[in-house]
Design a protein that fits this description.
Elements: H1 10-15, E1 17-20, E2 25-28, E3 34-39, H2 44-53, E4 58-62, H3 65-73, H4 80-90, H5 95-111, E5 115-118
Antiparallel strand pairs: 1-5, 2-3, 3-4
Helix pairs in contact: 4-5
C-alpha cells in the first residue's frame, strides 16, 4: 500500500540525499554519457504483456552530459543542497536558478524511478 505523500519544507528537501535506484545499472558510453539500464517491472500483467508484445527485459536511458553529472552525484552521500552548490559553482548559476533547476530535475528522475531520496526522520540524530 502506498503512503500518502506529504509536503516537505524547503529545508527538508535540501537535506534529502538522492540515491540511485539499486535495481538499475549503468555505464558510460563513448561520449562519457551515462547509459542507465532499467529493468522491466516484475508484476504479472507486465510479464504477460512482455510475452504478447515482445517487450525487452530492460530499457536503456541515455543521459546528456549535465544529467550524467547529476546521476554520478546521486550516491546517497550528497544532499540536494550539495548538488545545488556544485552546479551553481560549476555552471556559474545564481543560487535560485541552480536550486530550481536541480530540484526540478531530481523530481523528474524520481518520477521515472531512477532515484529515491534518503530523508532524515525527526527521530534520527
Amino acid at each position: 500500500m502506498f503512503r500518502r505523500q506529504r509536503k516537505f519544507r524547503r529545508e527538508e528537501v535540501l537535506a534529502a540525499r538522492p540515491i540511485q535506484n539499486p535495481a538499475t545499472s549503468w555505464e558510460k558510453d563513448m561520449n562519457e554519457e551515462a547509459v542507465i539500464s532499467i529493468p522491466r517491472r516484475d508484476v504479472w500483467w507486465v510479464k504477460l504483456a512482455a510475452k504478447i508484445f515482445s517487450i525487452p527485459a530492460e530499457r536503456k536511458l541515455v543521459l546528456d552530459r549535465l544529467g550524467t553529472e547529476v546521476w554520478e552525484l546521486c550516491t546517497g552521500e550528497n544532499t540536494v543542497k550539495d548538488l545545488v552548490e556544485v552546479f551553481q559553482k560549476k555552471h556559474k548559476l545564481s543560487p535560485k536558478q541552480a536550486e530550481t533547476s536541480m530540484i526540478t530535475y531530481l523530481n523528474q528522475m524520481a518520477r521515472r524511478g531512477l532515484i529515491g531520496f534518503l530523508i532524515k526522520n525527526n527521530h534520527d540524530k
